[in-house]
Amino acid sequence: MNARRFRDPWGVPHLRADDPLALATAQGRVTAYDRAWQIEVERHRSRGTSAAFLGPDALGWDRFVRQVRLDDTARRCHTALDPATAEWVGAYVDGVNAGLAAGAARSPEFAATGLRPGRWEPWTPLAVWLGHHILFAGFPGKLWREHVARRLGPEAVDLFATDGPAVAGSNGWLLAAERTGTGAALLAGDPHRFLEDPGVYQQIRLACPEYDVVGLAVPGVPGIAHFGHTGKVAWAITNAMADYQDVYAERLRRDGTRVQALGPDGWRPAHRHVETIDVAGADPVQVEVVETDRGPVIAGGPDDETALSLRYPPRVRGDLGFAALPELLRARTVADIDHALRHWVEPVNVVQAADTAGGLLHRVAGAVPVRHPENGRRVVPGWDAAHSWQGWHAPMPRAEVVGRAVMANERGLAAPLGVEFAAGHRARRIAELLDAGSAWTAGELATVHTDTYLGAAGPLLTVLEGVTGLGPAAAALRERLLRWDRRMAADSTDAAAYATLRAAVVRRIAAHPALAELAEPPAYPEVFAPWLALTPRVGYALEHLLGATPLPGVDVTALVGAAAEEVAGAAAEEVPWGDLHRLVSWRALPGSDAGPGPRLDGDHDCVLATSSVPGVTHRCFRGPAARFVWDLACRADSRWVVPLGACGVPGDPHHDDQSAAWLAGDLLPVSTDWEQLTEERD
């Protein structure tokens, strides 16, 4: 089985092999060479062993992973794979193991932490995938709503309904041939993820006699799952914001060394064992792992009045949907994509696809259980049969594409499957921009990716307009913001003034006596803290709290007026938004905080969704982890870019050579001509 490795001018690996198994091995090997530190961190994170070299800061995640039985779930799902898919995944793992030593030798992080590269097991790619997505559906939001209901009453549960601070989203759009200048469809988007160094997506090309696919892979996982172009058909996804994970209140009791759980049929034995987590620089920590008939216990335990368990589809079904991955590579038409998606489980996505014959696809893919509506909103009692799962939603929603289709995590196609969705600003703005043109090309769509209009500014500006009795400086600030074009451009001082006012309003609302009961979060594990902190919740729900669902007992007009008086002097200093809104990339290395990075355009609800946490920080931790345009008229005219570069090794020429283009909003060519590539020899 022969394989050859080429690179384009940006260091993107282009792999060519005699057959799919040799190609999978080559993909695993080049990933280990380019991303050894990244994928080894993810392997350890999926096993709950990362604190052993990252230290106490990683303990909360490791504890959660052990308790949720993530590695065991991956093993179960691997055991259930069909033989062909298992062999293909195994070939990838063989490649990773063959390349790790060389990759680790060029990655300084191993020496810095004393970590030695380990050995990947056949199920490790499934565990890595699950580790990326176990929190994707935002089930901790149910812990927040339970907290709100208990402290403010059930009627207050929806006050903070919005896209949560730790939920990943995306933009995506599909233009039919009649809306382009190429005579064929265009498919574009940008996944919004935590911005990491190295990036969460790996640009790659996989070619063998059966297929030739270019796309964005997840390092540590074979194939090209989310964004790909085979030359004949292309596909892309966004988070559907579906609700498919449930949190159950559990009543547990000890029976000697065993544990029992109260279910609908009375007390039943629960699984129980103890694991030890090694922690660099600290003593080992023991974790009691308990699993009831509902699922693994993720908070509390047998010695607490109530514990919480998590029920999630891969654990219930013993299936992670990996059979879809090799089928996607072989796809030639949207019908092939549609057929492959019958396997998809987690995460639940909205999928768009187009082919060279004019076929178009817009549908939801994944596994969503059928159960009581209250399961989607709050913690429900595990001993009540009314909250048991009753099968799976089928068929999944789909829609005909007429001219164009947009997906941006809003309450749209997937509405019957979810509870909370992103505000509709991004989706509406994308549609508005697309409808302004009729002959789009791949190169022109970067203007959509980088649009900075902030539709969410409306409610705050409306309240500000109605404020009376302001002092001269605050009145000047009001008039200035009412004239503002609502664009969150890095060089805009008006955008900075708006963001400063917004932050002051958020802090004042969060400190209001009406919300005092929510200020102290419940005693849940620290991994859930981003969903339970009051100020971020207020910041992301500000539009609703000032508009359609005002807080009882809060005079928002007076509050906004006081905030304007507070910040008026600072706003007059003419600080541009980019000086405040800087990139902060996450890097899995103790003490790796290098301070604020480059200046950024955009904001949370802009199409250019560079997210900060209003009221907490202006710095950006989440944004476009890649941008792409797939051209169905000619794949070579497709475009893409990632925040840093193709290689995860610091100091490598291709570690951050795409940063300038990403920051400028430019897209780079997708190279497809083998004659223009450089072959690498081992």
From TrEMBL:
<dbReference type="InterPro" id="IPR029055">
    <property type="entry name" value="Ntn_hydrolases_N"/>
</dbReference>
<keyword id="KW-0378">Hydrolase</keyword>
<protein>
    <submittedName>
        <fullName>Penicillin amidase</fullName>
    </submittedName>
</protein>
<keyword id="KW-0106">Calcium</keyword>
<dbReference type="Pfam" id="PF01804">
    <property type="entry name" value="Penicil_amidase"/>
</dbReference>
<feature type="binding site">
    <location>
        <position position="246"/>
    </location>
    <ligand>
        <name>Ca(2+)</name>
    </ligand>
</feature>
<dbReference type="InterPro" id="IPR043147">
    <property type="entry name" value="Penicillin_amidase_A-knob"/>
</dbReference>
<dbReference type="GO" id="GO:0046872">
    <property type="term" value="F:metal ion binding"/>
</dbReference>
<dbReference type="InterPro" id="IPR043146">
    <property type="entry name" value="Penicillin_amidase_N_B-knob"/>
</dbReference>
<dbReference type="GO" id="GO:0016811">
    <property type="term" value="F:hydrolase activity, acting on carbon-nitrogen (but not peptide) bonds, in linear amides"/>
</dbReference>
<dbReference type="InterPro" id="IPR014395">
    <property type="entry name" value="Pen/GL7ACA/AHL_acylase"/>
</dbReference>
<keyword id="KW-0479">Metal-binding</keyword>
<dbReference type="GO" id="GO:0017000">
    <property type="term" value="P:antibiotic biosynthetic process"/>
</dbReference>
<dbReference type="InterPro" id="IPR002692">
    <property type="entry name" value="S45"/>
</dbReference>
<feature type="active site" description="Nucleophile">
    <location>
        <position position="170"/>
    </location>
</feature>
<feature type="binding site">
    <location>
        <position position="243"/>
    </location>
    <ligand>
        <name>Ca(2+)</name>
    </ligand>
</feature>
<dbReference type="InterPro" id="IPR023343">
    <property type="entry name" value="Penicillin_amidase_dom1"/>
</dbReference>
<keyword id="KW-0865">Zymogen</keyword>
<comment type="similarity">
    <text>Belongs to the peptidase S45 family.</text>
</comment>
